[in-house]
Amino acid sequence: MAVLDPSSMYGAAAQAPANPTTATGKPGQAVDVQPVIPLATPAANVFRHVQPVVLVSLLVLRFKALVADPTAELFNGLPLVAAIQVAYVLLCLPAAGSEQITKKKTKPGEKKRKEEKVISGVLTAMFSLLLTLTTVLPLHVGFILFGAPLDNYVFETALVSAHTGLLALFPVFYTRGVDADSWVALAGLNTPVDEVMGGAIGCLVGAWLGAVPIPLDWDRDWQRWPVTIVVGMWLGGVVGKGIGGLVVKKTPASG
Q1: Which residue windows are transmembrane per the record (predicted)?
Q2: What is the tens place of the pLDDT at every residue in 226-243?
Q3: N or C: less crowded end of the chain, CB within 10 Å?
């Protein structure tokens, strides 16, 4: 059985571009980045709407615990957030490089292409998690540059960075791969605002806006670092994902 290897999904630009990104193939020309179209399976149609509800519900239910002990709550919540995000990308989004499997012809004796897509999706999700892990340090530095405490709350900031990576960047890695031209287009916002891009932007903007209440003289427990950052990040990601899903008015890709 031929299974798409992660190295082929995340190879150089000379390889076939990952779905949903297409390159012009001519030097000096910009990459044509297409929007991420959610899968059209029944599971995708349900879970892509359930996922934000689950995230908001967790935030509401665990808010008091987050205020009481942010470190423990963020640390203990990481596996659950990772599981939710992995389920979301596997059920709802096309994996980077999935076009290569879709276009293959089934030969006698081979298993169905659907099984290959499932296995390649799992491999892509695992590789994307590893890539997300590498973003924790850059995100940590970014939070410090935007005003996070430098000497105190180091572990808390690292945990916030890990949550940011899972919520904002993990779905982008899963759907876009690591093609340099595609990421340049994404960084320059030269890409349609789909639900993946909208979720990432909303997450980052929400984290930034979440810092607003911290210096205010309200003397509330929830004003301490990084409670409002986490709340803004989670809510911003949900709102951005919803807006991005509404902006893209195209027929979902086949599952």
Answers
A1: 77-97, 118-147, 153-175, 196-216, 228-248
A2: 999 999 999 999 999 999
A3: N
